[in-house]
Amino acid sequence: MDESRDEELVYQSLDDENEGAFEILYHRYEMSLLNFFYRRVGSWETAQDLMQETFIRVHKHLGTLRDRKKFSSWMFSIAKQLIATHIRESRRSIETDPVDEIFETYTIAPEHRSPIESIIAEEQLEIVRTLAQRLPESERSAFELRLDNMTLEEIAKTLDISASATKVRLHRAKQKLVAWMKTEYPDEFNHILGDKS
Predict the structure, then answer these.
(1) pLDDT tens digits along 144-184
(2) How far apart are CA 95 and CA 22, in angstroms?
(3) How far is residue 107's CA from residue 121's CA, in Å, rounded to a whole number?
(4) How far is CA 124 from CA 88, 102, 127, in A?
(5) Are 72 and 6 within 8 A, CB to CB?
(6) Which domains does the chain have, with CATH numbers?
(7) CA–CA distance from 15 to each of 4, 12, 21, 103, 123 (Å)?
(8) Whose CA is closest to 117, among 102, 127, 132?
(9) What does the alpha-carbon distance between residue 136 and residue 32 come to, in Å, rounded to a whole number?
């Protein structure tokens, strides 16, 4: 394992004749990025695509990095932007889910959120957790596991139900939560609820 510091490898990577340095950076952060994306999209294939796109952008814009000691933070900021873009593009074909929007913001690691994003996300998720206590037990159990960052498959296995039954429970739970959010916390969630049903 190459023990060179990130900043040294960044400097070496900017040398067109030293392709090995960037390869070391790639392997150093490959699994961290892959796990970062998988926790947010729940698909290894999509996570792999997003990871590859991150490294493509990192390589392309490496020369714009001002503080080479902060390479990893800069790289994860690119990853965060890709997650946001992925979510927006997914919503063009799938109806936007305000509960998922809160969850996606919250599950971005705190070190990659701005202070205000962290405060808002945590406050909103706490409201959602409180409202979820009103759900029927079957829907609440599925929803709370989702809030614990479980994938659809993991929830189904934990509850010993089918994936389709899990989807139904989560959908019903979110419908009720959005209705309660609209009526009881319209100001808190106005920016994401809008006219959405």
Answers:
(1) 888 887 888 899 999 999 888 888 898 888 888 888 887 88
(2) 39
(3) 9
(4) 20, 7, 5
(5) yes
(6) 6-93 (1.10.1740.10), 98-193 (1.10.10.10)
(7) 16, 5, 9, 41, 46
(8) 102
(9) 37
- Which residues, other chains included, contact 25 with Cβ-Cβ below 8 Å and sequence gap of 6+? 6, 9, 10, 13, 58, 71
Token pair 């609820």 is at which residue?
Answer: 193
pTM of the model: 0.45
Question: And the tokens for 28?
Answer: 């150093």
**pLDDT tens readout for residues 52-84:** 999 999 888 888 887 777 888 889 999 998 888
Question: When comparing pLDDT for 191 and 126, which is higher?
Answer: 126
Rounded to whole angstroms, the Cα distance separating 77 from 122 reads 20
